Amino acid sequence: MHPHTAHIDGFAYGWVNPALSYLIACTGAALGLRCTVRALTLPPARRLGWLVLSAVELGCGIWTMHFMAMMGFAVTGSAIVYRVPETLGSLLLAILVVGAGVLYVGYRRRTVASLLIGGTVTGLGVAAMHYLGMAAMQVQGKVSYDPALVALSVAIAVAAATAALWMTLNITGFGASLAASLIAGVAVTAMHYTGMAAVSVELDDRVPPGGLPASQFIVPLAVAIMAVISIGGFVLTLSPQEQTPAPAREPLRVKLFDRD
């Protein structure tokens, strides 16, 4: 086979995959951000469990969104399989890096600097998960990326993750939580499809890559992870709410713009 550029279709099943992906991203974000809010009603010594649960909900939602969207990704002339170590590693990476951003925000004084650092780390976690997940994808050819679109995808993730954290920290109520989760869903989904627009594949006659098709590996794992996300939602719903806010939940307009 002479090397040639393959046709790539990111919407092989129309808008079904993007719509489901966005819904999953918003669900994971809503639960994760509410866990962060719950943590911030508590004294610092009692926040860790909620912040860890937030990281799990956000990381699992990001991962599941990515691979749900990848179900609609097709390369003409080549099958697509996934290497198991990188695929599992991308899930762990999402939880750890996003968790680092959440923990930073959860334990630092709420200043502009801490918000920007937490949002940047969280956004980078989204991007890192995406590109490690892409490294797990194997096709019969060479995969390359447009650097400008890669940079844009990372910028989208960081900007939207920062905006979602700001809303979580500064506006209370169901409407604010819903808006924050929708913004976080945009962060993950827009980042994903911008990153996919950066992909090009040059097919060649190399040996077909090793790995497992999505139907044998990704789908069962995604179902299990959605069960984990649902359990986290039940924990959040059924756990008693603190009646007396902790001192850390003083008016955020003062803490955010600290002039000490």
- Number of beta strands: 7
Spatial order of the strands in the main sheet?
A: 1-7-6
Tell me the major beta sheet. Answer: 3 strands, antiparallel
Note the beta-strand portion: 5-15%
**How many domains make up the coordinates?**
1
Structure annotation, total helices: 8
Ends: how far apart?
67 Å
* Structural class category: mainly alpha
Shape: elongated
Helical content class: 55-70%
Radius of gyration, whole Å: 19 Å
> SSE order in H/E notation?
EEHHEEHHEEHHEHH
What is the overall pLDDT average? Answer: 84
Structural description of this entry:
It is built from eight helices and seven strands, in the order ββααββααββααβαα. It has helices at residues 16-40, 48-70, 84-107, 112-136, 147-170, 174-197, 218-238, 252-256, and strands at residues 4-5, 8-9, 74-75, 81-82, 137-138, 141-145, 199-203. A three-stranded antiparallel sheet has the order 1-7-6. The chain has a two-stranded antiparallel sheet with strand order 2-3. Helix 1 (16-40) runs parallel beside helix 7 (218-238), helix 3 packs antiparallel against helix 4 and helix 5 runs antiparallel to helix 6 (174-197). The longest helix has 25 residues, at 16-40. It is elongated, with a radius of gyration of 19 Å.
